[in-house]
Amino acid sequence: MLCLFQLPCSASTPIYSYKWHILFRCKWVPFLRTSTFHAPRNLCSTPQYPMKLKMIDSSGTKSAKGKKSLQPTFTVQGDTLQVYWHQYVVVITSICSFAALFVRNIQATIISISNHEYESFLVSFAFASQVIAIHAAYLFMGYLVADFASGLYHWFLDNYGNENTPIIGKQCVAFQGHHQHPWTITWRPFCNLVGTSCLLSIPFLMVLLTIPLPSSLQTFLTSFGFFVVFAQQTHQWAHLSKPPRWIEMLQQKNILLSTKQHGQHHKPPFNKKYCIVSGICNDFLDNIQFYDKLERWVYILWRWIPRHRMEADKAE
Ligand SMILES: [Zn+2]
Ligand SMILES: [Zn+2]
C-alpha cells in the first residue's frame, strides 16, 4: 500500500512535521492524550483561503450568474469537454448492463412470488409484500452505502494522492482542482462526466452479470454500483443553478444531494460533507468526526498527512 501510493504529504516533509507531531501526540492519538495539553491556537483556527467566484458560494446558495457563467478551467493535463467515441461505448455498455441487472432482479422477485404455493389470498398477498419489501430494503441499502462510499472515496481523492498515484492519479488532481474551479463540472456533457466511472465499473458489472448470486445480494450490489457510478451526475446537479425540475424536487426532499448541503463542502478547509449521492450520511459522519478519526489512523499507519491540514498550515 505504501509503495502503491507515493503521496506528496509524507511526515518527512520538514515544514509540517513539527506541528503534526504536536497535533498527533496530544489531540489525535487517544492513548497519548493528556488533559493538561492544549494544542496551539493556530492549529485549530480555520484558514482563510482566497476564494474565487464559483457556482456555489460560501453560504451554500446557488450563484446568480447561473449555469455556464464562467469558462471551464482544467487542472488535469489533456482534460477536455469533448466526448470521445470510446466514452459513448463505455457509458452505453454500463447503462445497458445496469438495466439488464435491474430487469433480472425484478424477474427474480416475480419468480420467487409465483413459485410460492397458493394458500389463501391473504397469505399469498403477505408473502408477496414481504418479498417486495425485502428487495426494496436491499435497494435502499445499496443507495445508502453508495452515498457513504462516495464520501469515503471523495475524502481520499481530496486529501491524498497526486498525479503520480497509479490508476486514480487523474481523479485525485480533478477532485482537488474542483475546489478551485467548481463551475467546470457544470460544462461537462453526460458521457464526459461519467465516462471514467463507467469504464471502472465494467469489470464489476461483468462479475455481476456472469456469477450467480442470491437475488437479495444482487439487488444490493446493483443499486450500490449504479449510485456509485453515477455519483458525478448527482454532484453536477448540485452545482447547477437550474437543474431539471424533478431533480430540484428530489434535492429539496434530500433524496439527491442538495446545493445547500454540498455548498458546505465547498467552504474552506473543504474537510466535511464529502458524500455526493444523496448527502444522507453527511451529518452523521461529521457529527461522529469520522474523517478526523480516519485521518488520525492513516497518519498512525502510514504517516500520511491530509491535504486540508497541510494547506491550513501553509495558510498560516
Ligand atoms: Zn471535495
Ligand atoms: Zn462540488
UniProtKB/TrEMBL annotation:
Q: Name one Pfam family in it.
A: Lipid_desat
What protein is this chain from? Lipid desaturase domain-containing protein
**Key word Phosphoprotein present in the record?**
no
User: What's the source species for this entry?
Assistant: Galdieria yellowstonensis
Q: Where does this one sit in the cell?
A: Membrane
Q: Which GO terms describe its cellular component?
A: membrane
Lipid desaturase domain boundaries = 143-308
* Bilayer topology: Multi-pass membrane protein
Q: Which domain of life is it from?
A: Eukaryota
Alphabetical UniProt keywords: Membrane, Transmembrane, Transmembrane helix
Where, by residue number, does the polypeptide cross the bilayer? 84-103, 123-146
In terms of PANTHER family, this protein maps to: FATTY ACID DESATURASE 4, CHLOROPLASTIC-RELATED
